[in-house]
Amino acid sequence: MDKEIIKKIKGIVGRQRVLESFEERLCYSYDGTVQRGIPALVVFPENTQEVAEIVKLANEKEFPIFPRGAGTGLSGGSVPQDRGIALVLTRMNKIKEISKEDLLAVVEPGVITEVFHQAVEKEGLFYPPDPASLKTSTLGGNVAENAGGPRAFKYGVTKDYVLGLEVVTPQGDIMRTGGRTVKNVTGYDLTRLIVGSEGTLGIITEITLRLLPKPQAKQTALAIYDKMENAAQTVTAIICEGIIPATLELMDQTTIHCVENYLNMGLPLDAEAVLLIEVDGSPGQVVEEMKLVKVACEKNGCRQVQVAAEATERDRLWKARRAVSSAIVQLKPTKISEDATVPRSKIPEMVRRLKAISTKYNLYLPVFGHAGDGNLHPNIIADKRDHEEMERVEKAVAELFQAALDLGGTLSGEHGIGLMKKTYLVWETGDVGINYMKAIKNAVDPKGILNPGKMF
Amino acid sequence: MMNRCSRCGACQAYCPLYQETGLEPFVARGKVELLDLLQDSKLQWNDKLAEIFSTCLLCGNCGDNCPNKVKADLLVREGRRDLVVARGLPIIKRTVFNHFLKKDGRLGMMAKLFYLYQHSGLQQVIRKSRVLEKLPGNLDLKEKILPNLSSREFRKMVPKVIKTENSKLRVGYFTGCMTNYVYPQTGFSVLKVLKANKVEVVIPEQGCCGIPALASGDYETVRELARKNLASFNSLSLDYIVTDCASCLGTWLEYPELWQENGVNLLVEKIMDISTFLVKILQIELPNPVDLGLIIYHDPCHLKRVPGGRENPRALLKQITGNTRFVEMKDADRCCGSAGSFHITHYQLSQKVVQAKVKTLESRQAQYLATGCPACMMQLSHAFSEAGLPTKVVHTMELVAKAY
Ligand SMILES: Cc1cc2nc3c(=O)[nH]c(=O)nc-3n(C[C@H](O)[C@H](O)[C@H](O)COP(=O)(O)OP(=O)(O)OC[C@H]3O[C@@H](n4cnc5c(N)ncnc54)[C@H](O)[C@@H]3O)c2cc1C
Ligand code: SF4
Ligand code: SF4
After folding, report:
1. In a domain, B133, yes or no
2. What is the pLDDT of residues A39-66, one digit of tens each?
3. Which residue's C-alpha comes closest to atom 8 of ligand 3?
4. Is B7 part of a structural domain of the chain?
5. Tell me, what's the ipTM?
6. Which residue's CA is the nearest one to ligand 1's atom 45?
């Protein structure tokens, strides 16, 4: 990178807030995927003004900016393209306000999701979005990817909680969208446009988030099935009872084996599927709903339902679910996490198709995930050093996307497009859709400064 | 093992250095990426990489919480070893290891360094060998961190064999350098408690366990030291070997992995932390009540990972009766940032890491903080005195001995 530019950037943020060496820059060349791209400079701004000045400079000198939170993304979204700067927002990590009266919070983008959870829960409040990466991911990254999590079925995803934003536009202006009210129809819904824009339409520098009162009680159960079909039917049956569990997670047999091997917690190895079900609400409602859930499970050919009597038991059940992503790499080291999502009613069919793909390409394809919202997480487990296998993986991924789309679903439920899925985007949006998006991008970012090469 | 790292980033939440700096090169994920590139010859060792790899506490907290069981602390150490092979040790470490640890294996690096610093012309040596450049800034503070040396070595103050009447067991005592040179009161406490419990103690000829060299990747020196220590303890007939230093224990337990020679008894079944010996083998009961007030405990990284290493010291402290109350401290098992010579070579960062402990203590005015590793004692007592906290930092055994 040009010495003059580096000097100017140091002038904006201070020399301490810049990493220049090749070795340090390498540590910002990745995210949670196998994608790589080395930035020419790593910059840590501390406030909106600094961000805006850097973006202005980037427009003047024409170098790209790759916004970055914690770098836990699963689509290559924050991976720089061997040039430009990685703009790391983790130092902007203040929780500016938590308001009980307005049921909202105002935060900077670098606040870690779990830190935020703890802060609001201390006030008796609740912020539902709970991506599995919440111990490290940033709220800015969550907004930029529109992250979801197990609680999404009942409570929705990040976009359902973003009331307003402060955004530095791709040309370096500071813009406010939305506000502090749940209702707001003033002009285009720019908040929604920015949410999930993966750092291509603006840099999020402040977020106003809607909160809920914290549910008073919850109950958790594990239901064991001999047949995958039956587990899938149960999901539909529970919903037909009018119950929306806070969590409804499915694990298939391969996953069960891996978890059991990893934790030795006594999961049945001959079961084809298990469901982890959690209901929350007032104490009375929780007991009532759990009863109905149990009936629904039993009616649909469940072998056994274990209801967690106390917190330690609940933790044990959750431990199984949380262990999944680590447990499955026992099979092989490389994990290709997909998050294709289908309408709920199509889950049984999607599971069938996934099995067929797994057999066809002779690949490990454990299926687990958020059955409540159709967001299965088919994970292909392979070895990136085995090129022949990786070719099969690529074909399997394409087929898997096709299956999801055939069933009226989507390529990505929560991880985003980034680099990983951009060749497939057109399958879902069609040319018209992509062109519309490109038109927006070109209008606000004519020089292609923000996160170029991503999305399309 | 490296292959298992999925770059998920979970280690950010557990790495004390990442928590303080927010910098990816200091967290396990960044280091694994660099090691991957080194392994594929896409990178060569250089000064920058040496600096990055020197910036790790080897606390293992990342590995304990890594979903894919990547032990970055071991990888970093392997990296340091590779670095030593590729470029040799930095001059200061070379001098210390060769002259102090190896040739005169009975001397602890820190002790010797600062014994010399205090008593000889080392100041000049240090200036000449450009150590000052390696220890940027705050030299006056860094000096303060080092406790005064004991006027006499512990091992010279006590007999080699301490018999008791009707002794039940015979144990060897590996004192470690720090107890020997800096904290003899720990050693006296250990002897007092063992004697009261009718255990015969032998303190044979011994040297440094090797941890400073191990942490720096100088495996050759560790092997030499290990060979001497094993020969000395193997020449005796002992029921058990005890140590009061978590770091020494950790190193002993690794001897097998560093060892290629056959036929040497590595004694890993016999060696244990003194707290494990008292709780599991002797199952002691403390005889007298004592008034110690509020006490808390800090888990040394090297102790918390051995079986019973968390429970046994606490079991001892909880047993103390009288006007004494044990309270669990928040994040008791978070690394204090001492990490061998890290607190000298990376003084400021190390001080940032220890601030978490200082904060806990500010809200909870304990009389004593007990721990099981002299390196932690040194770090914590410096931090507490800098912060003006009244809490006294002691070895667990010092409190236990008060009940006798
Ligand atoms: C083990 C694991 C589990 C996961 N589980 C889930 C899950 O359950 N649900 C889910 O939805 N995701 C999940 N993810 C994916 C990932 O954690 C989320 O996408 C998360 O929101 C990314 O946050 P981050 O701070 O790491 O962002 P990064 O990865 O750094 O960036 C992600 C994208 O956001 C952009 N960006 C970041 N900050 C800003 C900002 N302030 N302004 C503008 N753009 C910005 C980047 O340019 C990039 O395009 C998981 C990832 C891992 C590794
Ligand atoms: S070391 Fe472990 S926790 Fe850290 S990125 Fe790799 S797999 Fe994740
Ligand atoms: S061993 Fe400790 S300091 Fe080193 S990377 Fe792991 S957590 Fe961080």
Report:
1. no
2. 999 999 999 999 999 999 999 999 999 9
3. B15
4. yes
5. 0.93
6. A199
